[in-house]
Write a structure and sequence with these properties.
This protein has 398 residues and is an alpha/beta fold. It has 15 helices and 13 strands.
Amino acid sequence: MAEENDGFRRTFGPDGRLRVAVLGCTGSIGTQALDVCRAHPDRLDVRALAVSSSTQGLVDAAREFGAGHVAVADPAHAHDAALEGLPEGCELGIGNDAVAELAELDDVDCVLVAVVGAIGIRASHAALRAGKACAFANKEALVVGGDLLMPLAQEGQVVPVDSEHSAIFQCLEGQQRASLERIWLTCSGGPFYGWDASRLAGVTPAQALAHPKWSMGPKITVDSATLMNKGLEVIEAHHLFGVDVDDVAVLVHPQSRIHSMVELRDGSVIAQLASADMREPIQYAFSYPERWESPMDRVDFRDEPPLTFGRPDTDAFRCLALAIEAGREGGTMPAAMNAANEVANAAFRDSRCGFLDIARIVEAVMDATDVERVESLEQLADVDAASRELARRLVGRA
């Protein structure tokens, strides 16, 4: 079965269900995606699953959903005893190539790319080339490889899962893209909103990992604390919606009720509001262009506190400014920036560098980068590797 949608034909299994691959099924987005699949067993059929290293969680999910294909990205976990519990007949692949191959399976219609970091670019590339519907929850794939990925995508093939980009996507439905003047990308502000640089210097990993609004993985949670996450989302919006980086305005909105807004050329502003529940954009990525019933909490706006807004402090939160600058530079600069951030973010979580050192390391790597036009996945992999090596050396000096 297939469904016509804005030029892209979304396929379905013989029983009419959408056959999905969940890449990163034990992470924050992946586990919530499986919640959505549990809620709609008559509409969603989990065919493939992948993890980086959490093999017991992979086995548990494969047995629950009857997945026929699984992959473990980290070869160090290829012989974990837990894998002996996979369902009979379930095919197991090991390594990054095996994860990407799940995105090309004939019996998969939609690929949710929820693996963390630059690893997601290969799976995203494979899914798009194979003509699969793509639910993007890995922002680094577009940050690093948007110049390669988006030209492969047909209209309606990519549906974003980030709450902000899902909101923008929904606000633009039925609108002529030529009428879009500006995107208002909302941001909770993280746990340190209002702090200056002198106070941020003493932030500990435990403080940074305590996000006030969202439950996310540790890497993304620290990115939210530094506001790097919002900078990555600016670049992501640039690729997804075909707008200049400077036409994406970051707006601090601590209540996290407005997930983002679009401003049209006649001055009208359209916003998407909902509860702070990631299952809503995940479900919409699966159901698009339909809307399914949902057990998620509704917001009674009569009881809500006032909605407030503010400007981000890019002097104190340098990561946001650096990501926007990388987006303006384009080419391979976002790849270098992203790689440096991943290394510095991990070093901070391991207490090997300070909170403000993250921005210093990213800036130093960017300063050392010779920007080239993006040509291939291999080129991006080389830029990624070189930038990581430099960032590791800089961590040692922090």
